[in-house]
Amino acid sequence: MMNHNEVKHVSSKVSDGSVLLDVKNLKTYFHTFRGLIKAVDGISFNVKKGEVIGIVGESGSGKSVTSFSIMGLVESPGVVNADHILFDREDIHKVDEKRMMKVRGKEISMVFQDPMTSLNPLYTIKQQMEEMLILHAPQLSSHDRHERCVRLLQQVRIHNPEEALKMYPHQFSGGMRQRVIVAIAMAADPKLIIADEPTTALDVTIQAQVLHLMYDLVRKKDMALMLITHDLAVVSQLADRIVVMYSGKIMEQGSRDDIIERPLHPYTVGLLECIPRMNRDKERLYQIPGNVPNMLELPKGCKFSTRCRYCQEICIEVDPDPRELRPEQMVSCHFPLWDREERL
Predict the structure, then answer these.
(1) Local structure of residue 67 (DSSP, 8 states)
(2) d(CA 302, CA 47)
(3) Is-contact 195 228, C-beta < 8 A?
């Protein structure tokens, strides 16, 4: 986990306020022999052009399923429904697989958490990078593809890219392999990159390098980045806006400053309290009480009610609807925390 105080948030203005991705009432359910699993249950959010948005939550919150649903990668027994998933004004939830194959990689790229599952050990780095270009930039000649691969490796700060292209994934360290994945994701100049826990398998120092590398590249190329992570400290440093998920629901979403400095949901406050800080001396690290509920046995009302210190009867019986309590800050809570210091 990256220390909250290690790197200051780099403030930068979003280049274009128009919406690139708009997800409305997304539901992804898995019909299993044991029962219905509502992995994502009616969430709505958007990503603006040139924006970095963080999707944060514990394991099982529905973060990764959200990204797979957007990309059309959910397989049976999963069923995806949504009012719409508009990408650049096109509802990609309703297009056929042929169209989605053109969207994936060229317009929306993904960076996965384990580079060894994304790279084929039997092929060289060049072969795997060129595969993306052959598919999404067929107009390039063999020489142009080679030059593009060299430039991409230079951009992700891999030294001696000519030699690196001849190598196989096992000859690289974990951090270097993840840099290659980032290079492949950016090969076709997509409008949006979805990074799903991109640094989980890396050392702490390498995590920071890879994350800030991605941040710098998407800013330079005016791309949008959707960063999915369990670590609120990470998104607090890099994101323009933050979406907090829990048990398939969005608990809170808003600007980086609002979520970090003025959180409204008790779950968000709990995640913030879990971040290690240098000024705590020997104080024991806070832990949110209880466990994430079984997705087959979710509470009737608020999904966080079994762990919330402010839980009341209405919380147990009624699932709260999202409300906009501040401009562009939404919260799903019957008793939002208007004054964090006073309530804690």
Answers:
(1) H
(2) 26
(3) yes
CA 212 – CA 232 distance, rounded (Å): 15
13 has a pLDDT exceeding 80: no
DSSP symbols for 129-184: HHHHHHHH-TTS-HHHHHHHHHHHHHHTT-SSHHHHTTS-GGGS-HHHHHHHHHHH
> Residues 224, 193: contact at Cβ < 8 Å?
yes
What are the contacts of 294-298 at 24+ separation with CB within 8 A? 295/37, 295/38, 295/39, 295/60, 295/247, 295/248, 296/34, 296/35, 296/36, 296/37, 298/38, 298/247, 298/248
* CA–CA distance, 102 with 241 (Å, rounded to integer): 28
The number of CA neighbours under 13 Å toward the Cβ of 203 is 6
Q: Check the CA dihedral 42-48-49-50 and report its sign.
A: negative
Tell me the per-residue pLDDT of 39-67, one tens digit each, with 9 for 90 and over: 999 999 999 999 999 999 998 899 999 99
Q: Strands 224-229 and 241-246: what pairing?
A: unpaired
Domains of the chain: which residue ranges?
19-246, 253-343
Reading the block at residue 141, the tokens are 């000649």
Q: What is the CATH number of domain 19-246?
A: 3.40.50.300
Flag whether the pTM goes above 0.90: no
The two tokens of residue 90 are 């096109």
User: Strand pairing of 241-246 and 52-56?
Assistant: parallel
**String of b and e for 120-143 (b: at least 16 CB within 10 Å)?**
eeeebbbebbbbbbeebbeeeeee
Q: Distance between CA 197 and CA 273 in Å, rounded? A: 21
